[in-house]
Design goal:
The protein is of the alpha+beta class. The chain has 2 domains: 271 residues, lpxc deacetylase, domain 1 (2-Layer Sandwich), CATH 3.30.1700; 139 residues, Roll (Thiol Ester Dehydrase, Chain A), CATH 3.10.129.10. 20% of the residues lie in helices and 37% in strands. It contains 8 helices and 24 strands. Strands 10, 11, 12, 13, 14 and 18 form a 6-stranded mixed sheet that branches. Strands 19-20-22-23-24-21 form a 6-stranded antiparallel sheet, with helices on one face. Helix 1 packs across helix 2, helix 1 crosses helix 5 and helix 5 crosses helix 6.
Length: 425
């Protein structure tokens, strides 16, 4: 099972549900290991906000991530579409604090992503699994999660309105079932709450065209897509809020009267009780390295990759021998490996870290954009073995920042921070 992103960019436009501001939202492909991240392109520095529960802020009637000026509101429908399709890596650019509400469901987000095309691009899929039962009570919301190899939802709701009442349903969430059974379920609200919510600054963009609105007589200017559309929308919200786990969730979840606050609380408990995922070190020999890096003798300066976690960290080695061509001139009778070539070798290991996230590395090339805080601690001589340890610090689309150190016999001889991007050849 490989990680997934989209093949091309896709955009949707519209007004937000609660704040009524126009927003252009753009889905963009991301490298393997990037995860799901929003980007506020309307703010200085275009800050990224990861779709992770540690960014969640408990809010009324919506799911919020980030705070202050970088806050994003009502992200649950976008995240439901992303999670429903099993997408692991995606950049979501927004020029406002709230995504478009569109028709009140996740369908148009889902359709935009499908039109952009799905692509598997390597890397280990992160999965949240349980070993024991997890129970959460948050106000009227009650959840019970048990171990499963799938995401199974049992959802119950109970409203005093005669068109809703008590409803229950069960779904095994897959890309296929989500598209057919949940994506089109729209948000809903009650006419008697409108004045109260608007006085709180909410539902400024709501209408009967983007929400199911009920009064005492029934549904206003609209019809249901399913008899239990209210229930299905609550299940959709659960799928979206579970995406804040930052990985695919595999559990059987029973949710009674689910709420955004309740599901966010559940996600925190699921993470706290998750089964540890085994991590396997991957060794790559020179023939495999040469399939990924375009460098050749005398400029291929990586002999072996000892460990690699795609878009997280990479460890590689360079065996320094007296036969290296640069020793002929640097320096005769006193051979010292040039510092710039130590940095180049480090950058090549960083290239392996970055190119490991690209589905077709033969068609790509890594360009390094900057070097910072470069320090040389000790000379490197023939007979030394350089061990490079690179760690990914930040990923923004196809641009990343890495930090690296080089060691000989456990002693740091060089360190640097570098920025790079992946481009077509």
């Amino acid at each position: 099972m490989s990680r997934r992103t989209i093949r091309a960019r896709a955009a949707v436009d519209g007004i937000g549900l609660h704040y009524g501001k126009v927003c252009r939202l753009v889905f963009a492909p991301a490298l393997s290991g990037h995860g799901i991240q929003f980007r506020r392109v309307d703010l200085p520095g275009t800050p990224d906000i990861p779709a992770r529960v540690d960014e969640a802020v408990l809010s009324e009637r919506r799911t919020q991530i980030g705070d202050g000026e970088r806050a994003l509101h009502t992200v649950e429908h976008v995240l439901a579409a992303v999670a429903g399709l099993g997408i692991d890596d995606l950049s979501i650019e927004m020029d406002a604090a709230e995504p478009p509400i569109l028709d009140g469901s996740a369908r148009l987000f889902h359709d935009a992503l499908v039109a952009a095309g799905m692509v598997e691009h390597g890397g280990v899929v992160e999965v949240l699994r349980l070993t024991d039962t997890v129970r959460v009570v948050h106000g009227d919301s009650v959840y019970v999660a048990t171990p499963s190899d799938y995401l199974d939802l049992d959802v119950t709701i109970d409203y005093p309105h005669p068109l809703i009442g008590a409803q229950a349903g069960t779904w095994r969430v897959t890309p296929e079932s989500f598209a057919v059974e949940l994506a089109g379920a729209r948000t809903f609200g009650f006419m008697h709450e409108v004045d109260m919510l608007r006085s709180q600054g909410l539902i400024q963009g709501a209408s009967t065209q983007n929400a199911i609105v009920l009064d005492e007589q029934g549904i206003i200017e609209n019809t249901l897509r399913w008899p239990d559309e209210f229930l299905r929308h609550k299940a959709l919200d659960v799928v979206g809020d579970l995406a804040l786990a930052g990985r695919r969730v595999r559990a059987h979840i029973s949710a009674h009267k689910p709420s955004h606050r309740g599901t966010v609380t559940l996600v925190r408990e699921l993470i706290a009780n998750a089964k540890p995922e085994p991590k396997e070190a991957r060794v790559m020999e020179i023939d495999e390295i040469m399939k990924i890096l375009p460098h050749r003798y005398p400029f291929l300066l990586v002999d072996r990759i000892l460990e690699i976690e795609v878009m997280k960290r990479c460890v590689g080695i360079k065996n320094v021998t007296v036969n290296e061509p640069f020793f002929q001139g640097h320096f005769p009778g006193h051979p010292i490996m040039p510092g710039v070539l130590i940095v180049e070798a480090m950058a090549q290991v960083g290239g392996m870290l970055l190119m490991g996230a690209v589905p077709d590395p033969g068609s790509k090339v890594v360009y390094f954009m900057s070097l910072d805080n470069v320090k040389f601690r000790k000379p490197v001589k023939p007979g030394d073995q350089l061990r490079f340890e690179l760690e990914m610090k930040q990923v923004r689309g196809t641009v990343c920042r890495m930090a690296g150190i080089a060691k000989v016999d456990g002693v740091v001889v060089c360190e640097a921070e570098m920025a790079a991007m992946v481009r077509d050849k």
